[in-house]
Amino acid sequence: MSDTIGLSVLRGVIHRDLRLAMRRKSDVLTPLFFFAIVVSLFPLGIGSERDTLRQIAPGILWVAALLASMLSLDRLFEQDYADGTLEQMALSPAPLGMLVLGKVVAYWLLTGLPLTLLAPLLALQFDLATPSLLVLAASLAIGTPVLSFIGAIGASLTLGLRGGSVLVALLVLPLYVPVLIFGAGSVDAAAVGLGATAHLSLLGAVLVLTAFFAPWATTVALRIALE
Amino acid sequence: MLQAINLDCVRGERRLFHNLSFQLKAGECLLVHGENGSGKTSLLRMLVGLTPTATGAVHWQGSPIKKLGDEYRRELLYCGHPLGLKDALSATENLISSMELNDESVTQDVVHEALRQAGLQGREHLSVRALSQGQKRRVNLARLLLQKRALWVLDEPLTALDTQASLWVVGLIDQHLSNGGIAVLTTHQDLTLTGTTHVIRVGI
Amino acid sequence: MFYPLAGKLIPWFAVAAAMLTIIGMYVGFFMAPTDAQQGEGYRIIFLHVPVSWMSMFIYLVMAFWAAIGLAFNNRLAAMMASALAPTGAMFTFLSLWTGALWGKPMWGTWWVWDARLTSELILLFLYIGFMALQSAVDEPRRADKAGAVLALVGVVNIPIIYFSVQWWNTLHQGASVSLTQAPSMAALMLIGMLLMALASWMYTVAIVLMRVRCIILEREQHAGWLDELKEVKQ
């Protein structure tokens, strides 16, 4: 019984999930390629006019990041559910909320973080200015954890259901709206020189709120799924 | 002391058992018999607290397990039907991470010793994918050696095990009971344990 | 017991809903004065406004019942929540359509990315998600609880979504026409609107009670007490 709030458990879960992911690198890379392809498709559909592209770039990058981070959501708990690990987690004396937190953090490290790092690179295709690039990276760094947290709720609610992965999209996408608005808005604001601080701090507030509530909701949903 | 009071189980349209009660004191064991789909696993899941009881209650040391929460889970070891092993990890890694999830730390040597006793010497670092069903089951049961828990709830622990391994498991359970532990298990085989053994049949 | 009581109440609410609708419609379409700025086309708001109120309010009620169902493990409350969802979704849908019908003559376009319309659209998605989740779960108890968690998550989110959409809207001003500067309303208009709102209320109660009765019948097929009811025996 090392500690009461379960920090060692948290570390254990993150460590385990990262190690598992490293044994299956393709799972990590698929969403990234998806992201890159979707983003590159837009100029092909819209035309290569620079001003238009520059204007729509924040929206496109954010929507694509949203979709990419949703792509592997159904895998977040599915494997643990199928092989019985989730049962063991629910029966662990450590708080399930901590275990969930660990899984979400690991999930973010494997999807959100790479997306954040990749996005500025792809944004170069759209001729965004350097300050905008920085704001884009910052907004993704704050926003993608929110996506992971909310996504975890969706994933836990649809655990083991038929058509789970499509259903997740239906449940989670409307809840992503504020993140999209603040995220893409911050880049827009930076592009027109308004300063992105307001957007980013709102995004931060949303993050704090979800980090607090989402693990709890996920825990409840997981216990329901295990019944 | 583990007490089940008036448990009911309804699955879909069928009532699997009704008003099921029993009591187990330290050193006692309960064997749950029944056909496939008779509700054995459902009963065990109620006992460990995964499925909430619609009627009745499960008590541990006199208090309802719902109220005890992690205090109860600290005393409990459950081996369910899915084994809780990751195919991509080795037996050792699996056991270590499973211990970490349970908020207990363990050294590699201890794990190796447990795996040796489970008859898996030389396979400690093989990924679990390469193991046979019986060997996977042994990895899963090696947890019995690692986690010191008062209540064992085992769902079909002898499935896929050969005679020798079955004897090993039965020996472990016997030892657990003689140390004052409690065990609940489902099985299709006939088991002879030295301690006091209660038997119930579920399903009609 | 709830079931027979609900059975007795349904006709009353249904009749009240019908009456109020007729009166409300009459007041709205024949008695209320023609709006100076908007002409006759504005009369759609007698439908639009009550329907939009209901669409939002039903979500709150639904989340409330869902929370009760989850917290106290109460089956009836959970059934209420799932019975409310389709009605709420219908009102949301109606609200969007009537909004579009109103927008066409007023703004010259069917759809404007106005903050309220957008929020309403997202609300529709939330309803649809709730219903989709419930229908995807085979076991009714799990469906209830999972739906309840979703409804609660949604209800926490609605203010944030609404706020974010407003924020977004103020930044992208230009095409959109603000709905907030409502023309001062004649007393008769207000009465018509309130009557229609009341009618929607009655309609909701009637339809939800009916739906709950259906759900009860479906779920409790093999529970003994149903067989003792006269209506069911017939």
UniProtKB/TrEMBL annotation, chain A:
GO molecular function, one term: heme transmembrane transporter activity
GO cellular component, one term: plasma membrane
Membrane topology qualifier: Multi-pass membrane protein
Chief location: membrane
Superkingdom of the source species: Bacteria
GO BP field: cytochrome c biosynthetic process; cytochrome complex assembly
Membrane-crossing residue ranges in chain numbering: 28-47, 59-77, 130-154, 166-187, 199-226
Subcellular location: Cell inner membrane
Keyword check for Transport: yes
Keywords: Cell inner membrane, Cell membrane, Cytochrome c-type biogenesis, Membrane, Transmembrane, Transmembrane helix, Transport
Family: Belongs to the CcmB/CycW/HelB family.
Function: Required for the export of heme to the periplasm for the biogenesis of c-type cytochromes.
Name recorded for this polypeptide: Heme exporter protein B
Organism name: Nitrosomonas eutropha (strain DSM 101675 / C91 / Nm57)
TrEMBL record, chain B:
Lineage: superkingdom: Bacteria
Keyword annotations of the record: ATP-binding, Cell membrane, Cytochrome c-type biogenesis, Membrane, Nucleotide-binding, Translocase, Transport
Single GO biological process annotation from the record: cytochrome complex assembly
Protein known as: Heme exporter protein CcmA
Keyword presence, Cytoplasm: no
InterPro entries named among the record's database cross-references: AAA+_ATPase, ABC_transporter-like_ATP-bd, ABC_transporter-like_CS, ABC_transptr_haem_export_CcmA, P-loop_NTPase
Residues that span the membrane, as ranges: none
PROSITE patterns per the UniProt record, alphabetical: ABC_TRANSPORTER_1, ABC_TRANSPORTER_2
Keyword Zinc-finger recorded: no
GO MF annotation: an example: ATP binding
A matching Pfam family: ABC_tran
UniProt xrefs under PANTHER family: ABC TRANSPORTER I FAMILY MEMBER 1
Automatic annotation (TrEMBL), chain C:
Record keywords, A-Z: Cell inner membrane, Cell membrane, Cytochrome c-type biogenesis, Membrane, Transmembrane, Transmembrane helix, Transport
UniProt record similarity statement: Belongs to the CcmC/CycZ/HelC family.
Location relative to the cell: Cell inner membrane; Membrane
Domain of life: Bacteria
Record-annotated Cytochrome c assembly protein domain positions: 9-172
Function in brief: Required for the export of heme to the periplasm for the biogenesis of c-type cytochromes.
InterPro entries: Cyt_c_assembly, Cyt_c_biogenesis_CcmC, Cyt_c_biogenesis_CcsA/CcmC
UniProt cross-references to NCBIfam families, sorted A to Z: ccmC (TIGR01191)
Pfam families: Cytochrom_C_asm (PF01578)
Protein name: Heme exporter protein C
Membrane topology of the entry: Multi-pass membrane protein
Subcellular location, principal: membrane
Transmembrane segments: 12-32, 52-72, 84-103, 115-134, 146-165, 185-209
